[in-house]
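Minimal example, chain plus flavin mononucleotide.
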Amino acid sequence: MRFLTAGESHGPQLTAIIEGLPSEVAIDISEINRELKRRQGGHGRGRRMIIESDQVQILSGVRHGKTTGAPVTLVIENRDWAHWQDIMGTQVPEDTEEIKKQVTKPRPGHADLNGGIKYNHRDMRNVLERSSARETAIRVAVGAIAKQFLKPFGIDIAGRVTEIGGVADGTPLPDNIEEIKKTTEASPVRCLDPEAARKMIEAIDRAKENGDSLGGIVEVVATGAPIGLGSHVHYDRKLDARIAGAVLSINAFKGVEFGIGFEMAHRPGSDVHDEILWSEEAGYTRRTNRLGGFEGGMTNGMPIIVRGVMKPIPTLYKPLQSVDINTKEPFSASIERSDNCAVPAASVVCEAVVAWELANAVSEKFGGDCLTDMMAGYAAYRKRAEAF
Ligand SMILES: Cc1cc2nc3c(=O)[nH]c(=O)nc-3n(C[C@H](O)[C@H](O)[C@H](O)COP(=O)(O)O)c2cc1C
Ligand SMILES: C=C(O[C@@H]1CC(C(=O)O)=C[C@@H](OP(=O)(O)O)[C@H]1O)C(=O)O
């Protein structure tokens, strides 16, 4: 399966085309919209989120609530487009004043300068518009479809925030994924511990007062994946590597780890590897899950646990120094609006990208024309794996 996204932050809409989804997958639009709403929320979001109220339209590939096997087209309109039509139009504007409003001051921490030089855009709006994390809205819609595809295979995904600006929530992951979903939904920062949430909110507010921004860590858990998704046979089929790449593709994500992650550097092997057990009822299982569900690029039947670190939002009310590319003069301009922490929102994006990679791996393992054939292949595989 594959998908493409298109659309600018202040253009008319975001679009995705998903190709390769099997037929017969039940699609509930309200579920996609619920995910979109989750991504818009969280303490620390800026004024743009007051303007937008993301709703998906499905323009192809779904009929009477089920996929047909044809490409699925998803659209989310940008409400802010109404304010940007002149600046973002596809034709040369009649009002020449609009042409003069170019972005010539690259923002540190953004794609502006690198993209400007690479694509020869002296108006770096051409870079800014596409590099914006607005694009993650349509990826969450794609992820919501992936989650619905994974449902009949018993694969479920939840995310949480474990750290914001140095305030950590060390609550151990509950075994029950529904509990993670319920508790994080009730938290404005999507973490499990209310006391940690209070401190995170305080930290976000304090940073905002200081014109600053905060990053943090999100954790995604996926349960129900059978042993053997992904493969050891070739580097680009390793599923943990694909998931790591997907997490790093989220705007502002700079690091990724599985299971106990970087903590592995401090421990001996006997305190890292997950011993193999077997019982009549459970088949093969593990005593621990320190590797986060992967060995040899394949799932090992334990919950997948992946964490990503998000850098602090780069656009600051307390501006950083940069240079105007026309005058070469230094400047430090103040900004009009920005999120000052988007870690809670990013946890929803992280769930979505993990969901997509898992859906893709399931489709590769069990074939992909219609769900009926896939479920038959899946059942036969489970039976064989149980008897192994
Ligand atoms: C959900 C989400 C919201 C974001 N909101 C903002 C924002 O309001 N202002 C900003 O400067 N960066 C924001 N970012 C981060 C930038 O998009 C990102 O840092 C930038 O595109 C540069 O890419 P890089 O950090 O991946 O190198 C956001 C990221 C995410 C995931
Ligand atoms: C629009 C979204 O996030 C945007 C991501 C973003 C950036 O630079 O990445 C900058 C801000 O946009 P604006 O400059 O229009 O205020 C955020 O609001 C969204 O998450 O839907």
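Residues 2-386 form a domain with the Chorismate synthase, AroC fold fold (CATH 3.60.150.10). The chain has one domain: 2-386.
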